[in-house]
């Protein structure tokens, strides 16, 4: 404990004239201080206005970005829905050998149009522009003009997929393109899909006014305006606040002049559609050459800033008035005090030397106070010091302080510091609060907070040390930290049990695996798996805006509301046992949760899937969540797009759902935006394209969901990738053959051995193996699992071991699947030492002897131990 090493304090030389001059300055100092405070208040008011202006700008940009995301989802839903309708017509049209025979085609096309207010007509047009059939009888027998036919063929490609043709004037094919866009009162957006092996094509006319109506409804009550443009920058449709006619070039907007094509979404401030300054946010639809731009005129921003500035100015004027009053009263008091002080200055100067020593002692202080002379010997030792150190005053007075309370290993530093201070007047510890070790009379060391102040007295320079025992305080900055960590651990365990539902093990033909990684120990992502019938299971994934405990609480409340709404809908069903549709469930949850979410200024993105094993379908409803990826058995990916914005954004509860086939061998992948928004070492996002490529490849390579999910973690989120948000990933695989494999996931820990034994015992007995063979195979599986946990190389933290059992070809096959490096067992295995059990296990020889065949397989980072036992 170094006591002295700081600059020497000057000896006070206070005299009566100097004291009087100091006191005469105080009245002027009051005025100067008031002026300084007034200036600081003005600066504070200006800083507040600047800060609030930045907050307003940031909030407005965030709001525009949120609405652009919602409008893109609406636009994509309409365009993707149109493509889905056209694709659904292809099989029926392919069955007809003569497309010119339009008997019954009008009815088929009208069925595709039914219930789609955004479509005007669906027609079949041959390569010469003849309308072969149409949902609009007025189009029958029509031959399109050459310029219209060329426009419909714009962007034709070899893949013969659906594409959007240029925006055209007119209501239907008969008057398409007859009036220039700028003069047109009615517009149509054609979508063209060529028929396979034919020059015939399907033409659907989308009503652009539907987009404008949706935009107006979504932006109702806000100062925003919205535009839908093509990637070439030309205006397609806009809300009523935009005066530019369709077809107007808008490439001067920031979306085109600064960001596209490098970014698919951004927020900025720049030129608006009306030529003035505006803040805007844009987003590009992923599959279509469409751009949604949401704008707010800059005048709205400056109006809000002006309001803040007015309040700040009013506050400043009131503060200045109060400051002037306080200054006047204070100055009067100071002048009065100065008159009284003149009579006391002479007496104070005479007694100041003796009072300096008395003020340094403070015998009644609760802290230990030790005063030493310039030679380092103790001259004062108060009662608190006696209680703290265990020395009496008689024992320490006149003794060197470093021998009484300084630990031996600090004494040299203390003496060196004292000598340096006496020689140079420089110290590093004087007039500072530091934490050091001290020593009690019994030799016990303990932490203290130390302050040393040099004091000039008539007897010379002395040093007053104030010491406070901080043992209890340190035990409390530790117990508090431990309590906070325990609270976080408990919260994380509660989060895992409340927000991440373990998949049910007894759903025949389906295999589930999920992974959750919080960015702040607890997160707002949630996963719910509900078995709603013998052949149906509902899978719900969601993401609450925000992080930490608050987001987790909202996630738990939302998850609970789904179970409650399903129960209420089932109870209220007109026909007992009738399952509510996913759209009905989400609408019920929306009605229950939206008032609370809007009051908390929060929202929830989610994806609701219903897997129907009896009808081989999956029905989905997406609300602003990362789109679900459906991968066919052949490896072909299909995105299931969102149909709605997040819960809590809009007040309406009109929800719709869509259905696609789900065949044996197909797989589903769901994730939160924490996966796609993760940052790679080069600063780029992981992005949806990388996720789609990785999922498609891994689903072709691996047969088990956990192997597929955790190799995806290795592909996408390892190697220096930084997470920006909570991560949730779910994999659902439908087995190629129904209900042939039993499977469980085991944590990579030895305490899971009981589960291994129970699983193997259950399936060996069910297979009809004799008792001895069952026991040997159980021991072999325990040994194999133990080897993986204790000796596996290249393991991924958090990845489980999958234990599978199936009967095939007259044999029982048990597999242990895990991520890790390949293992090649030696051909000659050493003789087993049974005395090493259980630490050493029974060894590879027992694993071989317990089964009729053992294979150690490895493919693309996944290792498999496969044991085969013939059944007799």
CATH fold description of the largest domain: Beta-Lactamase
Q: What kind of sheet is the major sheet?
A: 6 strands, antiparallel
The number of domains = 4
Level of helix content? Answer: 40-55%
Which class best fits the helix and strand makeup? alpha+beta
CATH architect. name of the largest domain: 2-Layer Sandwich
Low-confidence stretches: 1-16, 834-841
Estimate the strand proportion: 15-25%
Through-space gap between termini: 82 Å
CATH superfamily name of the largest domain? Answer: PAS domain
DSSP summary, beta strand count: 31
Return Rg in Å.
40 Å
Summarize model confidence as the mean pLDDT. Answer: 84
CATH class of the largest domain: Alpha Beta
Number of helix segments? Answer: 21
Q: Give the oligomeric state of the chains in this entry, treating copies of one chain as homo and distinct chains as hetero.
A: single chain
Name the shape in a single word: flat
Briefly say what this structure is.
This protein has 21 helices and 31 strands. With 872 residues, the protein is of the alpha+beta class.
Task: Describe the protein in words.
- This protein has 872 residues and is an alpha+beta fold.
- The protein folds into four domains: 60-301, PAS domain (Beta-Lactamase, 2-Layer Sandwich); 351-469, Beta-Lactamase; 511-523 and 533-739, Phosphatase 2c, domain 1; 741-872, Histidine kinase-like ATPase, C-terminal domain (Heat Shock Protein 90), CATH 3.30.565.10.
- 40% of the residues lie in helices and 24% in strands.
- It is built from 21 helices and 31 strands.
- Strands 1, 2, 3, 4, 5 and 6 form a six-stranded antiparallel β-sheet that branches.
């Amino acid at each position: 404990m170094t006591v002295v090493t700081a600059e020497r304090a000057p000896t006070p030389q206070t005299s009566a004239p100097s004291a009087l001059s100091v006191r005469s300055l105080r009245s002027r100092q009051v005025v100067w201080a008031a002026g300084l405070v007034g200036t600081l208040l003005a600066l504070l008011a200006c800083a507040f206005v600047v800060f609030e202006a930045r907050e307003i700008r940031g909030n407005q940009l965030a709001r525009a970005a949120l609405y652009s995301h919602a409008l893109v989802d609406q636009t994509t839903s309409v365009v993707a829905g149109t493509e889905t309708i056209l694709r659904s017509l292809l099989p029926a049209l392919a069955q007809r050998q003569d497309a010119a025979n339009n008997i019954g085609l009008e009815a088929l096309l009208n069925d595709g149009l039914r219930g789609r207010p955004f479509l005007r007509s669906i027609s079949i047009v041959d390569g010469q522009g003849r309308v072969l059939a149409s949902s609009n009888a007025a189009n029958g027998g029509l031959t399109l003009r050459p310029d219209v036919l060329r426009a419909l063929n714009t962007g034709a490609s070899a893949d013969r997929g659906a594409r959007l043709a240029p925006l055209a004037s007119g209501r239907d094919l008969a008057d398409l393109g007859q009036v220039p866009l700028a003069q047109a009162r009615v517009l149509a957006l054609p979508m063209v899909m060529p028929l396979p092996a034919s020059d015939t094509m399907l033409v659907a006319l989308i009503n652009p006014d539907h987009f404008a109506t949706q935009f107006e409804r979504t932006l109702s009550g806000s100062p925003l305006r919205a535009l839908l443009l093509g990637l070439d920058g030309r205006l397609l449709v806009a809300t009523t606040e935009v005066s530019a006619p369709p077809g107007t070039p808008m490439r001067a907007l920031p979306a085109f002049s600064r960001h596209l094509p490098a970014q698919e979404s951004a927020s900025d401030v720049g030129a608006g559609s009306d030529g003035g300054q505006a803040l805007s946010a844009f987003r590009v639809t992923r599959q279509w050459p469409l751009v949604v731009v949401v704008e707010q005129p800059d005048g709205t921003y400056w109006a809000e800033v002006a309001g803040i500035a007015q309040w700040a100015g009013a506050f400043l004027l009131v503060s200045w008035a109060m400051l002037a009053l306080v200054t006047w009263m204070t100055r009067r008091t100071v002048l009065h005090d100065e008159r009284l002080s003149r009579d006391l200055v002479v007496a104070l100067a005479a007694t100041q030397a003796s009072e300096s020593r008395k003020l340094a002692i403070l015998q009644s202080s609760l802290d230990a106070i030790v005063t030493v002379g310039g030679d380092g010997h103790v001259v004062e030792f108060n009662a608190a010091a006696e209680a703290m150190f265990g020395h009496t005053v008689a024992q320490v007075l006149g003794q060197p302080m470093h021998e009484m309370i300084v630990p031996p290993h600090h004494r040299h530093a203390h003496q060196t510091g004292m000598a340096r201070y006496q020689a140079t007047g420089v110290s590093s510890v004087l007039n500072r609060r530091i934490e050091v070790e001290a020593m009690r009379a019994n030799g016990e060391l303990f932490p203290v907070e130390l302050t040393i102040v040099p004091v000039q007295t008539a007897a010379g320079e002395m040093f007053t040390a104030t010491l406070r025992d901080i043992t209890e305080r340190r035990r409390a900055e530790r117990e508090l930290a431990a309590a906070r960590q325990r609270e976080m651990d408990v919260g994380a365990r509660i989060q895992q049990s409340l927000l991440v539902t373990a998949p049910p093990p007894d759903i025949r033909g389906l295999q589930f695996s999920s992974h959750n990684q919080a960015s702040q120990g607890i997160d707002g992502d949630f996963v719910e798996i509900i078995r709603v019938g013998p052949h149906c299971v509902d899978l719900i994934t969601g993401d609450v805006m925000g992080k930490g405990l608050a987001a987790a609480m909202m996630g738990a409340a939302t998850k609970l509301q789904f179970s409650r709404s399903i129960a209420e809908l089932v109870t209220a069903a007109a026909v007992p046992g009738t399952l509510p549709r996913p759209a009905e469930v989400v609408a019920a949850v929306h009605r229950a949760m939206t008032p609370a979410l809007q009051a908390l200024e929060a929202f929830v993105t989610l994806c609701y899937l219903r897997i129907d094993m009896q009808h081989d379908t999956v029905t989905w409803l997406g609300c602003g969540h990362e789109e679900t990826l459906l991968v066919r058995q052949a490896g072909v990916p299909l995105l299931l797009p969102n149909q709605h914005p997040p819960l809590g954004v809009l007040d309406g509860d009109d929800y719709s759902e869509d259905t696609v086939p789900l065949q044996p061998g197909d797989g589903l992948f769901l994730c939160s935006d924490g996966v796609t928004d993760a940052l790679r070492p080069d600063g780029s996002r992981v992005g949806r394209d990388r996720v789609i490529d990785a999922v498609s490849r891994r689903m072709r390579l691996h047969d088990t969901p956990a192997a597929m999910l955790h190799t995806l973690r290795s592909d996408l989120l390892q190697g220096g990738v930084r997470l920006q948000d909570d991560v949730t990933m779910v994999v659902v695989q439908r087995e190629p053959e129904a209900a042939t494999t039993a499977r469980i996931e085991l944590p990579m820990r030895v305490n899971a051995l009981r589960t291994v034994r129970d699983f193997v015992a259950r399936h060996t007995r069910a297979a009809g193996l004799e008792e001895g063979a069952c026991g040997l195979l159980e021991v072999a599986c325990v040994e194999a699992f133990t080897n993986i946990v204790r000796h596996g190389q290249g393991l991924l933290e958090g990845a489980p071991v999958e234990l599978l059992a199936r009967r095939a070809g007259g044999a029982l096959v048990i597999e242990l699947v895990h991520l890790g490096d390949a293992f090649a067992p030696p051909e000659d295995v050493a003789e087993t030492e049974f005395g090493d059990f259980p630490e050493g296990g029974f060894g590879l020889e027992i694993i071989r002897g317990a089964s009729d065949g053992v294979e150690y397989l490895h493919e693309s980072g996944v290792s498999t131990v496969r044991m085969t036992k013939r059944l007799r």
